Amino acid sequence: xxxxxxxxAPVVDVLCVGAGFSGLYAAYKFxxxxxxxxxxxxxxxxxxxxxxxxxxxxxxxxxxxxxxYSFSEELxxxxxxxxxxxxQAEILSYIDHVADRFDLRRHFTxxxxxxSATWLxxxxxxxxxxxxxxxxxxxxxxxxSGGLSTPKAVDVPRLENFTGTTVSTSRWDxxxxxxxxxxxxxxxxxxxxxxxxxxxxxxxxxxTVFQRTPNYVFPARNAPLSDQVVDEIKSNYAxxxxxxxxxxxxxxxxxxxxAAFDVSDEERRERYERAYERSGFNGxxxxxxxxxxxxxxxxxxxxxxxxxxxxxxxxxxxxAVLEPRFxxxxxxxxxxxxxxxxxxxxxxxxxxxxxxxPIATMTSGGIVTSARxxxxxxxxxxxxxxxxxxxxxxxxxxxxxxxxxQDAWSDGVRTYLGIMTSGFPNFFMIGGPQSPALASNVVVTxxxxxxxxxxxxxxxxxxxxxxxxxxxEAQDDWVRITEDTVRQTLYATTDSWYxxxxxxxxxxxxLGYVGGVGKYRRMCTEIAKHxxxxxxxx
Length: 538
Ligand code: N01
What we know:
Layout: E1 12-17, H1 21-33, E2 37-41, H2 49-52, H3 73-78, H4 88-101, E3 108-110, E4 114-120, E5 125-130, E6 135-143, E7 165-168, E8 183-187, H5 191-203, E9 206-211, E10 217-219, H6 227-235, H7 237-245, H8 265-278, H9 295-312, H10 316-322, E11 335-337, H11 340-343, E12 349-353, E13 359-363, E14 366-369, E15 373-375, E16 378-381, H12 389-393, E17 397-399, E18 403-404, H13 405-408, E19 427-429, H14 442-462, E20 468-470, H15 472-487, H16 517-529, E21 535-537
Parallel strand pairs: 1-2, 1-6, 2-3, 4-17, 6-19, 7-16, 8-9, 8-16, 9-12, 10-11
Antiparallel strand pairs: 4-5, 5-6, 13-14, 14-15, 17-18, 20-21
Helix pairs in contact: 1-14, 14-16
Bound molecules: 3-acetylpyridine adenine dinucleotide (N01).
3-acetylpyridine adenine dinucleotide binds near residues 60, 61, 187 and 213.
């Protein structure tokens, strides 16, 4: 390809991919330091995940007062969330507001994709190639490309045969009205499907949900935030943020005071009922201390949810299909919905268990399973993402010595703190694999990572070092810590996107650190305090 770079394109301090929560905060932080910053974003504007995921019902299932930036007191005072769980459009307008409020757009080139990123050892620079044909050079390369931004490649047999409407939740591009009066299939029952199914059911002539693995779905209990609640939040923001930073999951902890079998069967049930009313990540799955470490304890909570499903869903056959039986509660990410199970009581909604009748093929007019054919006009794919590594591999990151990132990680992901990887100097991941991003309110993880990376770069520059690289030994230790941590939990028992098992051929590595954002922050702070052991500066 001809290089279309203007001759005068300067070398910048920081090259960054993505203008979502990560890239925008990085731009703010680095500009504050007076370091030059060039960001690239494939979308025409800011927003990241919240730009792309516009499917009906899309909203965040982490409460907005926590799922928002904490770096500016003015920002958190002037912005008012309308509901407990903000819908996609409101989160996108918040991100828009942040971009304007702090004049961050000027740091980004929009509608531009990074197609490769190459380390130039002699110059000690990264060079990114853009789909515009230009190249740009910078001292540090930041991946703010998100963990759940690369849709999983379609692996539904012979979808190309289908001639009706096909739409994917992660790249939704039709009005909901286009599904009105149609026979619609939704494939998948993860968080995205759980949010859109009730709304599609309201307009479709008939909706058939094709479910491979039933999940645990809790009522989100979304509600408007009253003026009084907003005032309380605003006057307590400093304390709320501090609690989130030192918590397990980036939201205020609700520390369980007992293990599941410390209490009588009756008390356990009552407590699950109360927790079910509370909902959220501190709901049923967080009620007892051992629910994520002891399979027997977990089964008490799982059975409670199954009972709820049997109570809500009127047809026993449908309830049986929807009851989660193949993994422990919380071992795969739980889902939060509004009227999810109730939707299956509608006469125009049915559920098909793909475990009993797998999809065999598609025809021009529908889906053929091993048992029968389903004529449909539209297929909604809610089949998930190539999590964490998909977005990183898409950047074409390589160095002459280590080759491509995907080759360096061909036996599984290896990082130091989920932020750096040995053999790739001056390359930093924000909310990367083996960071707490997977199992946390990601905004807390993003702010911590960007702050820590900024301090590290500042430390290196102050000492005259140009190159920053994790040592292989420190990386081995971190990989072992993430594995030891997850081995103590039921996450380790389950195949899911958490360990890459949703994508054929992806090596199995648990893609997060699940020891908690508070503990992680303390470790990172200690490392900084001790002059960054485990990181070679040159
Ligand atoms: O994707 P998923 P998602 N044939 O991977 C099924 C975040 N998020 O987009 O479990 C048939 O969870 C698959 O079945 P199985 C959140 O972190 C947050 O829903 O592999 N079925 C599963 O049911 C979430 O965890 C929010 O057996 C196939 C579904 O498709 C993450 O994004 C909202 C299939 C995929 O579920 C991903 O959620 C949305 C096939 N070939 C997303 N391939 C909120 O904040 C896959 N499936 C609310």
